[in-house]
Amino acid sequence: MLRTRKIRWLSGTMVLLAILTLLLPQALLPQAAAAQAQTSGIDAVLVADVSNSMNTSDRDKISNEAMKMFIDMLPVQGDKVGIVAYTDQVEREKAMLEIQSDADKSSLKDFIDQLGRGPYTDVSVGVAEAVNILNHGADPSHSPMIVLLADGNNDFNKTKGRTQAQSDADLAKAVKEAQDQGIPVYTIGLNADGKLNKEALADLAQQTGGKSFITDTPDDLPQILSEIFADHAKLNVVKLPSVTGNGSYQEVTVNVPNDSVLEANISIMSSKPVEVQLTDPSGQAVDLNSDAAKLSTSNSYSLVKLLKPQEGDWKLRVKGAPKDSIDINLLFNYDLQLVVDPIKTKSYTKGDKVDLAAKLENGGQPLQDNDLYTDMKATLVVKDVDTGKSEEQPLENTGSGFAGTFEVPDNHNYELVIRAEEDSFYRESAPITINASGAAGSGSQPTTSGGEQDKPFPWLPVILSVIALIVVGVGAWFLMGWLKRKNRGFVGQMVVEIRDENTGDKSYPQYKKLVSFRGRFHLHQLLQLDPELKETEKYVFTPSNGDRIIIRNTAGGTLEKSGRAVDASSGVELKNGDRLSIPLQQADKTILIEYLV
């Protein structure tokens, strides 16, 4: 009875809170939308050819170093990464992992170091699986991308009857999906043996809006990875002076131009180990394993990441071996968007003039630091949709934004994009369409920003606010307990295999980290399976005490735990090392799971 009363009280409290959220004056409500505004992150899948041909075309394991450096360049929190290692089949796979700590990055890099090699190659397998992973695990608010590291050549197992035509068809299907979903594929061609199929890799990148690179040495990695980041995040790479090692520390100035910089990645490439020191603009030494800066090292690179760095001149001191060439690149990360003011909505004709104004926004708010505009240049890019021709015209820098006028040159349809640029980054606005063809329609606003005005909130008597605060205070005890249970997290990971009961074949083990789940999740979420295996949704996992997990079959039924059939309808507890066999009735498959903490 007491539990029932608590539930009723909690339900009433939540309903009242929902009503008050809609009705209370805006001044009394938390500005949740502003607080949650963040830079759109990256969802990336790293795809590596691990066939035996890599023993010659990638003998120094450049692909491993490139993937690890990519992970180190990502922000400390928020982005998601998956990994696919393929031959003519998927050999190893890491599902999308949201990076929340240095430990997550270390886990991904450890996974890369454990990759082995095997016979045969089929590029379409790796690309198709990467697209599939993004389809099932990407965050809709993030920007997806694929980085493919390969020599571009196929080598089929003749006993399976696989043909080049079949591979080409599967690759074309994956490319079409990537195009439809705006997933660029960046290719890094590995050419140590001189047998690179650069045309195939370049074509793959071109079709999806990515870029193609070629390397046969780790020395190229900082430039390649910086350019991939820069292209995807609309940044410019800042080249710092190269250093020739002499056995002593040499100083390089790293200028942080403004306080809108979220992160600065300083990549240092040398054939031999280097030692690094750093001082901030005030001259104070900086701990390279702190909240201010982090140092990551590998066999062929060092990377210093400055976190929300202070504006001014930082001093990087590098000590390398005598006569060793040390290349240094700098890449900033900004939380900035270029937003165009709403234009008048109307149909246009030849000779009409359209006034344009744009400004930078930080977290959805106008940029406060107008000094950032000082060295920026803005350009209006005009595309005639009817003819396909484009032209550019400069815009005025007003000191707090950009302004100009577009005169409609003909009775055609046009797409307008404003591009603003300075030394370390550039931004492009969402496109504006201008209809001057005489057909039904009108000029429209940018597709990602609108001019819809907030509707005014009605003002309620102050006494209602006071009553609401009292109710919230009393109900908060119950609400906090409920939220704590709902948002309880998981630890450890699950090793998952799928066995086909008709053939006896098993998939390669997949390692699924659980830290991204909260409160509960079902088996279908964990596996990211096809709709034909949708019956796995009835198996639900919830956290338990002592790093244990409860699995329930919400539809009733049994599963095998450590070889013994158990009733899963009331819940089965899993501890470290426990193994499950879950038979699927509709698909003639069995899910094999091992829980590891």
Number of strands: 34
Strand-residue proportion: 25-35%
The proportion of residues forming helix, as a percent range, comes to 10-25%
The main β sheet shows up as: 9 strands, antiparallel
Tally of separate helices: 11
Termini separation comes to: 38 Å
- The low-pLDDT segments are 1-40, 447-457
Shape: globular
Mean pLDDT: 81
CA gyration radius, whole angstroms? 28 Å
- The secondary structure category is alpha+beta
Folded structure, characterized:
- The protein has 597 residues and is of the alpha+beta class.
- It is built from 11 helices and 34 strands.
- Strands 16, 17, 18, 19, 20, 21, 22, 23 and 24 form a 9-stranded antiparallel β-sheet that branches. Strands 3-2-1-4-5-6 form a 6-stranded mixed β-sheet, with helices on both faces. Strands 7, 8, 10, 12, 13 and 15 form a 6-stranded antiparallel β-sheet that branches.
- Helix 1 (2-23) packs across helix 10 (462-486) and helix 4 (62-73) packs antiparallel against helix 5.
- It is globular.
Please specify the SSE layout and strand pairing:
Layout: H1 2-23, H2 32-36, E1 42-49, H3 54-57, H4 62-73, E2 80-86, E3 90-98, H5 102-113, H6 123-137, E4 143-150, H7 164-180, E5 185-190, H8 198-208, E6 212-215, H9 221-233, E7 238-239, E8 243-244, E9 249-256, E10 261-269, E11 275-279, E12 293-297, E13 301-307, E14 312-319, E15 325-334, E16 337-340, E17 353-362, E18 365-366, E19 377-384, E20 390-397, E21 402-407, E22 413-421, E23 426-428, E24 432-435, H10 462-486, E25 493-500, E26 510-513, E27 521-522, H11 523-527, E28 539-543, E29 549-553, E30 558-561, E31 564-567, E32 572-574, E33 579-584, E34 589-596
Parallel strand pairs: 1-2, 1-4, 4-5, 5-6
Antiparallel strand pairs: 2-3, 7-15, 8-15, 9-14, 10-13, 10-15, 11-14, 12-13, 16-17, 17-18, 17-21, 19-20, 19-22, 20-21, 22-23, 22-24, 25-26, 25-34, 27-28, 28-29, 29-32, 30-31, 30-33, 33-34
Helix pairs in contact: 1-10, 4-5, 6-7
